[in-house]
Fold this protein.
Amino acid sequence: MLTYSFADIGSDSLYEHLYKCIKNDIKKGVLGKNEKLPSKRSLAKNLGISVITVENAYAQLIAEGYIYSIAKKGYYVSDIKDTYDWDSDYEVNRHEKNISDNMKNNARQIEIVKEKMRDRIDEEFSVSYDGSEGKYIADFTKNKMVSDMFPFTIWTKLIREVLSEQQNALMTNPPSGGAMELRRAIAKHLKEFRGMIVAPKQIIIGAGTEYLYGLLIQLLGNDKVYGVENPGYRKLEKIYGSYGVPCEWISMDEVGIRVEELEEKNVDIIHITPSHQYPTGLVTSIARRYALLSWAAERPGRYLIEDDFDCEFRLAGKPIPALASIDAAQSVIYTNTFSKSLSSALRLAYMVLPDELMERFRRDLGFYASSVSSIDQVALARLLESGDYERHVNRVRVRAREARDGLVALVRKAFPAGEVSIEHADAGLYCIVVAERRTGGSTFARALTRSSIPFIDIGDCFWCADGASVPENTTQILVQYDDLSPKVLTTLELQLMGGTLQPK
């Protein structure tokens, strides 16, 4: 049994101290790979702390790739060849890095990065039932933010200020990359929140990520082979297909996208969601992240498109550092959107280009006019600079956490035997419900449908038949937290408990 002292933990919380203790034991080899850790309840009892403290510590360790969980079996130490300490302040000058173009060794990259930096680091959907095929279908084609969470008062005030103070400036077109005021604000936000050191000129503003993907295809070339996650965001198939781009479907394992398949299928560009994979909810492990960076560095012209779509909504532990924040070879194209945090109606997203691609963008695509209203860009810049955006995100995060906790408690109450469980519930705005198909899975899916709660069966997110690796006897359902209000959860509880409860 693990034993640690909590006598002198300084300013750390209990879970932070426990997380650091276990992480140090893993890094030192005291806890070996695949070694089983104590259950949350037994470790809490042994240390004299709460179960939630252990739960949060384990969640942070999972997020950073130090441990992994197996449903109904427990927690185990990951196979980590080397680790990256995200705790200290991050500061880097990428121009001081001298990375070999033919770097083929993951360990070498890790050492170079360690020498150069201090460690640290869409969708309004509807649900329906297809009786002919017996499938529950959700439309995940639009981003969504619950309307009562949008900061209408603050946004209205900012719009009025911008219209009043910058009438002349707003009558001129901003640079093709976007208003410099917003690009500076985003650069500052990325440094403070994601540990990324980027120049404002590297940021390109666009009317949604779909528009930006189109620019990237023009920039990188449609003769490249693009690798996408399987299962993954099915709309990418239509986007890349519309440009005639060859796509390869790359399967996932328990720690991320399979690197060996990239070589087998001669992929040039990878489109990935490492901080919170859609739809499985997986968080790519540290070792796998470095393996991906090494793959990109082995050959000129290889890039990773990192979609960080709901990174701001970490519900337990610290935010997960972006892959771009540890990229020493400038092989990561970082993309993000404000659709998840604010509203899809703004149609405002951005990408961060490596220096070489930024020069190519200015040369080849600089003729494009900005696709986003100058008014919206300046207003958003002020929202970021004022701190109101961060406060808004915190409010959304609190609501999502409450919805998550309510759903977890309800599942435990309705299925005490454990035939239904919740996985990957600490990162982002959705979780995965895992259930036995012929028992709890069918019951839960019907209850969601009758309660008008949107969801999607992950089995429907596979791009091709050979990737359909979900066990036949298991249902894996994606459920978002957006609309899980106490009233909605009560309705769901009524459905699950056979209508024995009274609505609140």
